[in-house]
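The passage that follows is intended for readers who have already worked through the single-chain material. We present the inputs for a multi-component assembly, then the predicted structure in tokenized form, and finally a short commentary. You are encouraged to pause after the input and sketch how you expect the pieces to fit together before reading on.
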Amino acid sequence: GQNIDQPTEMTATEGAIVQINCTYQTSGFNGLFWYQQHAGEAPTFLSYNVLDGLEEKGRFSSFLSRSKGYSYLLLKELQMKDSASYLCAVRGTSGTYKYIFGTGTRLKVLA
Amino acid sequence: DGGITQSPKYLFRKEGQNVTLSCEQNLNHDAMYWYRQDPGQGLRLIYYSQIVNDFQKGDIAEGYSVSREKKESFPLTVTSAQKNPTAFYLCASSIDRERGKAFFGQGTRLTVV
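Having made your guess, compare it with the prediction:
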């Protein structure tokens, strides 16, 4: 079957660093995506990994290990506006190519 | 500016009525998707289309129908057969069936009373 697992909720303090993990089991692999979603709004794209390793983009970094079916999103210098849900998604192959989303991790940033 | 537009943002319907949600994109993307999101849950795929005049059922297609007559448009009809239609509906598109990230519309919150 196809499955993506993320923690349901995390809490961190303003200015701190937080790591959100994602493990996946999918039919084929054509990239892993991280999205940010504020309550009642559409998801917005944060990062994309298709090869193993770390991708850095400002305060956000994402890591991928394809052999372990594992990724994480690292948020540095947390700000109150980072309070949101973070969705991990995998794009499959083998004729489907659809995006499969995890349930999302709700991050609360405290002052 | 290029983008993907969903309308309306909020929609109220009486139980038993069909309702159609609009999704239009001017990004020249081949692939389009419809997702449903319920409180505290992730995105579940309803239907997707990888090219004009072709579409496939996702994981929760029962009670929904779609069409893809034009590249730019992928409307979703929520029929009276959908048992629990109240939800947040998201339309997305990607450049083609293999490459690229998904771009999302603003979403439509459907409430059936």
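Commentary: The CA atoms of residues 15 and 57 of chain B lie 24 Å apart. Chain B has no helices and eleven strands. How closely did your sketch match?
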